[in-house]
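DATA SHEET
Item: assembly model
Revision: 1
Owner: S.N.
Input lines:
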Amino acid sequence: MDGTGFLRFDDVSICLGGREILSPTSFEVARGEFVCIVGPSGCGKTTLLRAASGLVKASAGAILRSGKPVAEPSREVAFVFQDYGRALLPWRSVAGNVSLALEAAGIVTADRPPRIDDVLGKVGLAKHAHKFPAQLSGGMQQRAQIARCLAQKPELMMMDEPFGALDALTRQGLQDELSRLVRDDGLTVLFVTHDLEEAIYLGDRVIALQANPGPGRPSLARMIDVRIERPRDQLTTKEHPEFLRLRRELFAFIEQGHD
Amino acid sequence: MTEHVVVVRAAAPPEARRRTHGWLALLRPWAFPFVLLGLYEAYARRAAALGSEALAPPSAALKALATAAADGSLWQATGFTLGTAAIGLLLGAVLGVSLGIALGLSRRAARLSLLSIEVLRPVPSVALIPLAMLMFGFGVRMELAIVAFATFWPMLILVQSAVQQVEPRLLEVSRVLGLSARQRAWKIVLPAVVPRLFVALRLGVAVALVVAVTVEIAANPNGMGYAMMIAQQSFDPALMLGWLGWIGGVGFVINAAMLRLQRAVARRMGAAP
Amino acid sequence: MNERLGDWLGSVGVLAALVAMWWVASSAGWVSRVFLPTPQATLASLAEGLNLGGGGNGELLSFTLATVSRMLLGWLLASLFGVLLGAAIGVSPGVRAWVQPTLEFIRPLPASALLPLAISIFGLNPAMVLFVVAFGAMWPVLLATVHGFAAVEPRLSEVARCLQMPRAAFVWKIGLPNAMPDILAGMRLSMTISLIVAVVGEMIASQSGLGQAILLAARAFRASELFAGIVLLGLIGFTSNALLSIAEKKLLRWQQP
């Protein structure tokens, strides 16, 4: 690590409610990298993500983005929430929700429609632009949220278990769509999930956190590189020997943490 | 005379912070009204000194209330209003709950009676005051008739919807378990309805009080509302304001008590409070 | 389709049966005609009072207009001030913490209880009644608005922070639409209170309107006029509620799945 990473965590620890959720943790994320964070409940992966986006303040250490400390949320960092239903404005259509990001950025009314259409096309919601969230399925709602995040033209995309509330088939479809989007736009992504296979499938690197950190037991327990070539495929990649090896390694590690 | 030994403990900083928070939480609700009343007291004293017949300072209102309490008129009027409201509510609730349960259990009956209910319900209860006056004269019967009419409708609607919204999954469970109709009504429908029954009751109490006082202000020469009107007509602003505050206080206490009851029932029955 | 039609006819039938019972009870004298006029007498009073056939005195029409205009004007004022004040209070958790307990104390107070105070300050005139109507009807809207602004989904607040939305934009684009369902429900309750206070105000302040009309009719034992007035008041209540419900559905279209 040469210290010029795009996003850098320097001995970041986070305490909430008097408890240390995350012990001092350090790592770097390079531009264009897709980093997945896994771990059992309570290991602080969501908290880590929220701290990186400025929604939560770190108790100690520093989080630096392009060398500057992260203090407040910024439009350059998009955040995709797990409970998509609650993160969309129910009184605006899909197009209206995407427009919110553009309005916040001060884009002139006339310039908005082409950008909205572009982003809706990318997530495959072009035909549903005028529907309200209540009329959409879970997968479509999450895509709408992703579309709004893309409209921000972010440097960095934080995703907090975005597909956790969806059924398996929808999840697989969205995983591939996301991979394609990220590759096409060259996005840097921090992706939290509890699904080990998803983490290995999507990520360039997987960071495993463990719960109840203490002396001799740091939060950041494992960091593995996923050296499987892209584009990846739901069938063949999951039978790739490297995939299976990483899967076994991570599985064993998570099991250890679960006594 | 007992001797009190006061033990003073040096509190650790976090505890002290929590204790201040406790004080703040206790006193804060009173700060704003206290300031308002204080300002009004100053203003009203000046107005009274200039001979105003409309305004009186809160201190004078309290004194007037105390006098009314001492000579019994406070309790008599309050008793009338609360008693009449209670009887009217009892009547309206019994009728409303019975019909509500019947209509809730039979979708057909509910659909058939919908039009009649929608035609009769919008009549404002105060519109019936002159009719009740005509039929019963002044007094208890006239007021409780109007309270009964006013509370009948919300009880009917809320109980009907509560019965209709018994978790269908539970009804399926009762079929699978082979419960008889009576067992189903007693073990599933009734307990499921009880929390919302108490919500309806709380609303009914609020409506009963408001309607009773309104009837007394408009027509009935009895009770708290009338006492307030008389005070105004006798150019006794202190007593009038005293009654206004008393009516507000009584209403607040009763509503708060009903809210507690409703929440306790919900907790006991495992429903969302 | 046939079942729907059958149900509709059935419910009309139930209503017709009730009217028939009314007719029998009154015509046969089971209930004295002093208290319960026949349906046809009520209808005749209505026709005459509304000047439907020409040749009537049309009094009821002017009374109805007086009551309705009092109710509507008071309701509009109440809604306007209720929303503005409610938004100002609801938007800031600090202000809410200090002021909310006082609001909760005022909530159970009957609006009509302010009439004596208003009479001693303003005297017996239309402005006094309008003031009490507006003031009394303001509270449901105010309380509903405070609640609507206070209960913003925390996720949406975070989205606004992530998008770096300025406070004013947040209140206008998220706070207000979020509060809309509560505000509209409050306005509906407000309308009911406006009607009630308008009627009571007319009764005790001797202001021209349906309230005074039915009071005088009762005192003069003119039951059919009394009932005509009650019917009209019921109609006003029904129509205002129906119109508001339609408006609410239109404005809250996004709630339908």
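QC remark: Residues 88-153 of chain A form one domain.
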